[in-house]
Amino acid sequence: MYYGEVGDSLNYFHDAGKLFELGRQDAGAYWNVIVWNEYTPIWDTKLMLWQEPRAFWFVKLISLLMWIVGNNYWLLACYFSFLSFVGSWYLVEALSKTFPTTRLWAVGSFLFFPSVVFFGSGLTKESLSIALLGWGTAQALKVKDLRSFIYFGLVAIVCAWGLAQLKFYYLAFWAGGIGTHLLAYQIVHKTNLPAWGYVVVFVGVCVLGVFLSSFVFDFDTLVLMTVLNHNTTYVSSQPQDLIHYSIHGGQGYISLNASWISLFYNAPIALEAGLFRPYVWEASDKLKFLMSLENLGVLGLAICAVVLIFWKGLPKLSKEEVLFSCAVLMYVVGLLIIVALASPNMGALVRYKVVTTGWVVYGLGCMIKASVSKIVLSK
Question: Could you say which DSSP state residue 243 is in?
């Protein structure tokens, strides 16, 4: 078992088990915890994750499921693995109907790619995140009229609420990408703009969205939380597992400074780390070695895609494909940078970035396929 006797998965399970036992002894105290977060134990019980709101929300969810499947780790792990699979399958079916020629890459990327299957399974927040992201994105791809838009809105509320409890930065980039895509499509779907015109519209809508959201969301807080998470991970990690950034833009702590200048300066390093690290020579154990081999494959796909684009140019895409590609690029690049900056431990990074890995492989595969098709048709 990957998590051994410690780790997030077992911590979630043990705390949920204590809550479940509390419920069997005192239903009132249990529901005060579940609904109001008022913890008054009836015996000497210590909840390890009580001080971590997002982790404890997941613990409460697990405890509720224990009333159905009992205090059984393996049944709970199978349940969340099944949810992750269903969300991914739903996404694959939606991608296959919207972009039929990409079905094989969608299946391979989201249902069979090793790290997506491994880290997207089990009793982890990533399993539920993948399920919610897959379900929400699939419904967004099906928006064609008012009825489908209303249904997507209901699904989006559920997914957004769940993602906000699990990983708020997953929600930020997913909602930004999906919202910008849908609004930009409504602006350009009856126009005959060239491909670069669709990109300009997408960027314009994105900039407007960031500007408007700045009135209700403090982006400086995001920077501060990113650096605090970075520092917490940095001091608790082994030196050989760390990604080292550079202090820039003023006085800093460890290797990042809580300023936009520092984050932008280190963004290219973070993106490279999120996409391709650990490299083979950085693997300090068997699992990291396997992940490094996978990253080597992703690097090979990236090199192949770049060579084909420089050789034959960008493939011709429909307006739907252009806008969706922009949304995926925004989601993947933004999330990889934030995750890599906040989690400079390469072992943790390979797990946290799992919600982007399938999209990276899918995007590179589709680029290669389109370029190869262009070469074949030109002969």
Answer: P
Around Cβ 16, how many Cβ atoms within 10 Å? 26
Q: Which tokens in the block code for residue 49?
A: 């994750």
Over residues 89-107, the pLDDT tens digits come to: 999 999 999 999 999 999 9
Give the span between the Cα atoms of 202 and 119, in whole angstroms.
32
Contacts of 166 (CB under 8 A, 6+ apart): 54, 57, 58, 125, 128, 129, 132
Close Cβ partners of 90 (under 8 Å, ≥ 6 residues apart):
134, 135, 138
Contact 35, 60 (CB under 8 A): no
> Does residue 54 carry a pLDDT above 60?
yes
At residue 1, the pLDDT reads 44
Distance (Å) of CA 329 to CA 71, 326, 364: 41, 5, 11
pTM for this entry:
0.92
Shortest CA distance to 29 belongs to which of 16, 20, 17, 42?
A: 42
Tokens 């519209």: give the residue: 201
Q: Which of 161, 54, 114, 140 is nearest to 354 (CA)?
A: 114
Q: How many residues does the chain have?
A: 379
User: What is the rounded CA–CA span in Å between residue 171 and residue 161?
Assistant: 9
Of the candidates 306, 370, 364, 360, the one whose C-alpha atom is nearest the C-alpha of residue 336 is 360
Listed by start position, the domains of the chain span: 8-71, 167-378
Closest among 284, 273, 286, 295 to 237, alpha carbons compared: 284
